Amino acid sequence: MLNPDIIIRHFTQSDQVAARALILNGLGEHFGFIDETLNPDLDNITASYLAPGHLFLVAERQRVLVGTGALLFLPESTGQIVRISTHRAYRRLGIARSICQRLIEHARQRGLRRLIVETNRDWYDAIRLYQQLGFREEASNEQGYQFGMSLS
Fold first, then answer.
1. Residue 11 has what DSSP assignment?
2. Contact in structure between 26 and 88 (CB atoms under 8 Å)
3. Concatenated DSSP letters for 76-137?
4. Residue 97's closest CA among 71, 65, 66, 133?
5. What do you get for the CA distance between the two ends of the chain, in Å?
6. What domains lie within the chain, and their CATH numbers?
7. With CB atoms 3.0 to 4.6 Å apart as the test, which of 18, 21, 43, 117 could cross-link to 65 if both were Cys?
8. In the chain, which residues have pLDDT < 70?
């Protein structure tokens, strides 16, 4: 169960700087470097996610942004969960799980029939999380996995 002092809410423009930094820092921790050119969607989250009608959630604790996650609405009643990230000091508290569960709930409410998520082969915590949430491996290559979940 998520700590009651952690709030999950919709992204607002005032979250831009903190959300971008949190995601990029997490990528840097995992890969050992940050190539900001590979993540242009983070330069303007409102334009990249909200304007096209996608959902972007943040988690905060005492007004500090500690987690992110987004749901992309794709063709054929499919959604994709992306940008799941938790601040290093707040990992293992159920934040990523809670964000994913909210995104899955929202996908069901919107009538989506299927969800997908992708991750790198060596991102073991993410793989374990997605499997525990009910996602099943659908495809893989030398870089990573695609997992899927039926919502119908």
1. -
2. yes
3. TTEEEEEEEEE-GGGTTSSHHHHHHHHHHHHHHHTT--EEEEEEETT-HHHHHHHHHTT-EE
4. 133
5. 26
6. 6-150 (3.40.630.30)
7. 18
8. 1
Tokens representing residue 107 in the block: 């996908």
* DSSP helix/strand/coil, 149: strand
Q: Which residue do the tokens 């096209």 mark?
A: 52
pLDDT value of residue 1:
62
Q: 3-state DSSP: the chain helix, strand, coil percent, rounded to 5?
A: 40, 35, 30
pTM above 0.85, yes or no: yes
Q: Encode pLDDT of 85-102 as tens digits.
A: 999 999 999 999 999 999
CA–CA gap between residue 121 and residue 4 (Å, rounded): 33
Contact 18, 25 (CB under 8 A): no
β-pairing, 78-86 vs 144-150, is unpaired
